[in-house]
Amino acid sequence: MRERPNEDWDGEVPDARSLLGWPLPERRGSIPSLSWLVERLRDSRPDWGLLESFVEFDPARYVRKTLAKTRACELLLVCWGPGQGSLVHDHGGSSGVSLLVRGELRETRYAWAGDRLVPDVSVRAAEGDLLLEESDTIHRVLNTSRHGAVSLHLYAPPMEGMTPYDDQVASLKPPRPADVGAGRRRRPRAG
């Protein structure tokens, strides 16, 4: 299915402390590393009773809801119906970690092979598993099961944008980002 996340939601969200057991950092740059995010989310015990009230499935597309956002990070809830998945995409330079709260998902990571993106590694995640996204990760997430899946995503800094790649283009020939000073890479434009 095509990626068309449903963000049409205006419900009241409790604070992150209620959901995770700890508050989200407020200051940009206050998160020391991806491993810090991993440890925090891994050690969290999300309150399913609270989360369940935000779970919503749409038969046409997966549903993504922003639960909390600070200048340092953002917390998203994603509800994946059977067969639903994202396009191949990056996270616009943000790093993140996802916790699979219910169900199972398959993540396929892509790597550059010359000027092409090709599937590199595919893993299955089950309830309680974590998926890590480095700032340069390009991947696709798909619910291959016959049941809904629910995942929590914590990104730092908050995602300012992400580059989606068309499935056919991703496996054929998107432009490779050029290296741009001090380890930063220019992202190709979505087209």
UniProtKB/TrEMBL annotation:
Molecular function GO terms recorded = ferrous iron binding; oxidoreductase activity, acting on single donors with incorporation of molecular oxygen, incorporation of two atoms of oxygen
Superkingdom in the source lineage: Bacteria
Query: Which residues participate in Fe cation binding?
Result: 89, 91, 139
* Disordered: annotated segments: 165-191
The cross-references to CDD domains, in alphabetical order and at most eight, read: cupin_CDO (cd10548)
Pfam name, any one: CDO_I
**Keywords for this protein:** Dioxygenase, Iron, Metal-binding, Oxidoreductase
Database matches in PANTHER family: CYSTEINE DIOXYGENASE, CYSTEINE DIOXYGENASE TYPE 1
The text of the family note is:
Belongs to the cysteine dioxygenase family.
What is the name listed in the Swiss-Prot or TrEMBL entry for this protein? Cysteine dioxygenase
Q: Which organism is it from?
A: Myxococcus llanfairpwllgwyngyllgogerychwyrndrobwllllantysiliogogogochensis
